[in-house]
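Can't paste images in this forum, so I'm doing it all in text. The chain is below; anyone willing to post the predicted structure tokens underneath?
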Amino acid sequence: MGKKRILVLGANGYIGQNLIPALIKQGHMITAATRQLDWARAQNWPNTQCCYVDLLAAKTLNNIMTNIDIVYFLVHSMAANNNLIEQECLAALNVKNVLKHSQVKQVIYLSALQNPCCHSQHLMARKLTGEILRESKIPLTEIRAPIIIGAGSAPYEIIRDMTYNLLILTPPRWVRSKSCPIALENMLYYLTQLIAHPTNEHRILDAGGPEYIDYQTLFKRFMQISGKYRPLIPLPIPIRLISIQFISLVTSVSPSITKSLIQGLQHNLPANDQALKQLIPQKLLSVDEAIKQAFIHSPNAINKADWGSDPILKTKWCDQYSYYPKDAGFTLTTRATSRTIWQIVQQIGGKRGYFYANILWQLRALIDDLMLNKVKYGRPIREELYLSDMIDSWKVINIKPGHQLTLLFGMKAPGLGRLTFTIKDYGKYRTLDVRAWWHAAGFSGLMYWLIMSPIHRFIFKGMAKKINKIALIMHKKQ
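Text version of the structure:
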């Protein structure tokens, strides 16, 4: 397989961030396109150029396909609350217009399995996207995939979180629908090997795992492997009465993504994958094997740029933690300079305390003392903070001078958490975001978060405003 120049649209998505390292291992030159440019650059992918692209803004696609051999289209607006189909079609139309005037030889589009009886906006948008991309005349390979089992996959994480976070599972009747889940490892192999099997014509290929099972069985198989046994009592509740907000409350997946996924689960989604298996033979992992692989890779949740590289994190992670964190915080806009805000943020702890509601911070530390998890009070005497510095029970695990400070939560609680102070400079103004991130450990971790979340929002709003007030006063004096 010769080296190719590859453009990945949707580099920050679940498949994108797993596919790019696999393509790099094959020796290809990658252009990672995303709206989260800072995130992409922080991955430090070798042989990869990162660029900002918003498929809904046609001008950001200018020259993006110059000297590109293959385009992976992995963008799906599952997080869009309104006009999902319109947004998906507009994105596909903008890409099609650029493809028409490019020298791209192949487009690989990751779509979803279809059922003619299903009217899910999510599935309809995937189908329409493929139809629009085929109008560019560039050979398009559309891979229609089922749910993917892997650490971080939204469908898998919903099952995982519901099992860990609920004492009794009472899912609606969609758990009787069948699909053929595929392991992330197998899906990535199909996608990367397609490069070695170019085509001069459009083609649609179904992908699937080796088992055709319902979601109730999938829940049971997960419980067997995880050792978390829960009574599973499906209720005959119509899809329209399902509380998407409730599912999002007990899982780490956003409401909009949850809604899109569940709408697509109302009907069976079989895969006619013989053509793909003949084109690219491989050993397909069973559901049990795929789940076990997901457990092995679940610690990757903390192998992210926001967590830094402190070795203590590896020892703190456990299988019960949710892959994606809950978050609560506050963002404000300010005229204060980034430098001034950064100076104030670094003064956290010590005599100044935590800027706001110090009595609540002291009370929380006292609770830890009473639980024999003794807090070591104090902070460095110097004004600047560095990696591994301790601030009471907090530890500095990531620091980007002038931009972000990340503190590891060290108090006793059922989960793993961090507190971030993020400064972004937009030229005429800056934003300051104070936010807590929490990987809940099962039911107790979820309850802890639900109780603390309103308090967090109150405190962090006050902290951000107080930091801004001090920064503005300093700014006027300078």
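The radius of gyration is 24 Å. The first strand starts at residue 5 and ends at 9.
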